[in-house]
Specification:
Elements: H1 8-20, H2 26-35, E1 42-44, E2 55-59, H3 69-83, E3 92-97, H4 106-127, E4 130-132, H5 142-162, E5 165-168, H6 186-195, E6 200-208, E7 211-216, H7 228-244
Parallel strand pairs: 1-7, 2-5, 2-6, 3-4, 3-5
Antiparallel strand pairs: 6-7
Length: 248
């Protein structure tokens, strides 16, 4: 297995920023974090990363014990930044869960869920990320999720005009053994971002021989059916198939 640990100085700087709410660059921190990965990630298909212009970075939600999904985010971000042109926007505005939930454990639900909601909210504001209630949303979070979707679509429109990027993992949950199915509504959400002006850049993350492998596919525009009832399944299928090609 690879060796993954954030440099102590970077950890200290991040904690200070979370305490003071000082903005940080995930592009810059991603490069620092990836430089400390041993062995370094293997990046395939970097020629497909658009050197400038908008896109929606769509990846699998890869993680395992000892390798949190944040390493997937940092590794992909570093690979994208390395390919972007000097005058292009290097930041990836990742969509992240608003909190960890623990339906199987009442005490964790009561203690850890509020703590992660607080911490994730601060991290999102510091890095310019987007928090969203987990899918499927709890009954009391339906309105909050609708508001989060609206905020993300507005962000997508702004980024499309200035050549920025949004990142997300449609599965929305850890899947170390393969590629899972995204929850209902994910395809419709992606369709909104595509219609806002973001083509999809598919990315697959795996580990081979103890080394993280990040594989990019060709940017594409999913076919969005005109009938809303068909959009969710059709768009989700196209995006997940594109991601699957990068992890086989």
């Amino acid at each position: 297995m690879g060796y993954y640990r954030l440099p102590a100085k970077l950890v200290g700087n991040i904690l200070w920023s979370l305490l003071t709410m000082r903005p940080r660059s995930i592009a810059r921190d991603g490069l620092v974090a990836a430089a400390g990965m041993s062995p370094p990630p293997e990046v395939l298909g970097s020629e497909y990363i658009p050197p400038r212009g908008p896109c929606l970075v769509a990846c699998n939600h890869y993680s395992r014990p000892g390798l949190g999904v944040w390493w997937t985010v940092l590794g992909i971000t570093a690979a994208v930044v390395a390919r972007r042109a000097p005058n292009a926007d290097p930041e990836v505005h990742w969509v992240m869960t608003a909190a960890w939930t623990f339906p199987e454990s009442r005490w964790r639900q009561r203690l850890l869920t509020p703590l992660t909601r607080f911490a994730f909210g601060r991290a999102a504001r510091v890095y310019g990320l987007v928090t969203m209630p987990p899918m499927p949303p709890a009954p009391h979070e339906v309105t909050a999720r609708a508001a989060a979707v609206l905020r993300t679509v507005r962000l997508a429109r702004r980024l499309a005009r200035k050549g920025g990027m949004i990142g997300l993992a449609p599965e929305g949950q850890d899947n170390p053994t393969g590629l899972g199915q995204p929850p209902k509504g994910s395809g419709a959400f992606i369709a909104l971002l595509v219609e806002a002006g973001l083509p999809v850049l598919p990315v697959g993350v795996t580990e081979r021989g103890g080394r993280m492998r990040i594989s990019f596919g060709e940017t594409f525009l999913p076919s969005v059916p005109p009938r809303r009832v068909e959009r969710d399944r059709a768009v989700a299928r196209q995006v997940m198939e594109a991601i699957a090609l990068q992890i086989t």
